[in-house]
């Protein structure tokens, strides 16, 4: 029976894969994870999708088990600053879009919104975030809203099963290296063999399938299925099996990042419960508040900015707290492998593909890949249909997310540097260009967004279009004839709910401090 897995790589991808497959198949699966002692993990990757809770649930972990160990916080949205113009911001929150009489509330808002802030008028979360609050009450219960009802109970579903159901109101932010450490202990305690050694060589058999990996000190390690979690190197899939890599650089030019981990007194600073993406002259800076430090980094395109200038800008942005903190410069391989499963090798994580972290999709890609591999796990006959199904779903997720990210740059009103001007004239995927034309007449819905599962619901597209401000949008003509009373009542209900929540929820920092005991 095919049950022996060799995972090469011990970053987030390697350990998420090892722990999930142990939880899924227990002692019936034999897993060896080998990670180099001298090639480090990329070590960033701190913000997630809300769907990640399905992963922790699958492992049988509660928030109080893993969050304190990973300095984790809640993320209620991505906050986009200065993408439209200096001083402007808006949220892309984890909150379902309401609909009134068959039209999304944003459509009613375009017709006659109460203020010029679609996010505050249409979502309660925008004001909850501004106030630095936790979406859980002091007793740990989740905010009560029709849009999260039953959400805790749905955690046992896979992400694809969960699509279109209740929107969970938050995701997580954590120290990626601490999560990898936590999952190492989890996996090893459940029988995963952990080898710290460098893989020197990958051996292929006469059919070109992987027959083993050779390490410096532990000799050959062999298995049935090899999982390549070696990061941007793609040691097994891209190097040994020579699988081509499809670059997305023509449409997403950001290929570099410089990151800082800045220790900070978060009790004094307070926690804004979101990831902030602040537009810069040649890219954007992320700010992720964790317990005890802030993770930050400038994502930029080397065609427009040198690494030295990027680091200088980032240090100025952070201020004196960053003075003694070493910078981590990263070159990013943007795109995806033509196929992520080839012969008896499956690449998961950066070796499979990556897009810039603007919507925190790296860990989502890993989680999705793991769920799909568990579903399509090969039998002794290596049925090629399973490989095809798997490869199609991975390609769709990444190509769909690529479209969503390109939309951010096309829709951003900012136009003050060559970088931002070029973003408006650069070629974009043809399918996206056609969709944007439709969205100018009718806001995105399930019929007009990327048609395959890629994690993002239509309301996410609405947020980006409405927030970025560079594309003219019109309300549906039908709304000029429709009675607005129900929509006005909905806007009022949101104002009332916002008032209640901002008066009753605890501060995010206080909630985590209590969880840590
Ligand atoms: C700038 C940046 C910001 C990001 N931000 C986010 C974010 O906010 N949210 C998000 O979801 N994702 C984010 N990501 C993506 C996230 O970091 C990755 O998806 C995640 O860390 C997974 O990485 P990995 O495990 O695939 O690779 P890596 O972390 O690079 O791990 C590679 C592993 O392979 C091992 N290895 C390599 N060569 C060998 C060898 N020869 N022998 C043995 N072992 C070997 C290394 O030792 C290491 O353990 C970000 C990525 C970047 C670059
Ligand atoms: N799968 C969804 C994707 C999603 C829904 N709303 C948001 C908001 C932000 Cl900032 C990122 C992703 C999503 C989920 O994770 O809930």
UniProtKB/TrEMBL annotation:
Binding site for FAD: 10-13, 199, 350, 363
Claim: Flavoprotein is one of the keywords in the record: yes
A single MF term (Gene Ontology): monooxygenase activity
Keywords carried by this UniProt record: FAD, Flavoprotein, Nucleotide-binding
Residues annotated as transmembrane: none
Biological source species: Streptomyces subrutilus
Binding-site positions, 7-chloro-L-tryptophan: 75
Protein name from the UniProt record: Tryptophan 7-halogenase
Protein family membership: Belongs to the flavin-dependent halogenase family. Bacterial tryptophan halogenase subfamily.
Active site residues per record: 75
Residues that coordinate or bind L-tryptophan: 359
